[in-house]
Amino acid sequence: MKIEVKSMFDKGILGPLVTLPPGRKVVNFRWIYRLKDDSRFHGRLVTKGYTQIEALDYDETYVSVIQDETLCILLAEAAAHGLLLLYADVYIVFFNGDLHHEIYIRQSRGFKIPGQENKVYRLLKAIYSLKQSRNAWYHKLFTTINATNFKQCDIDPGANA
Question: Does the model's pTM come out above 0.85?
Answer without folding.
Answer: no
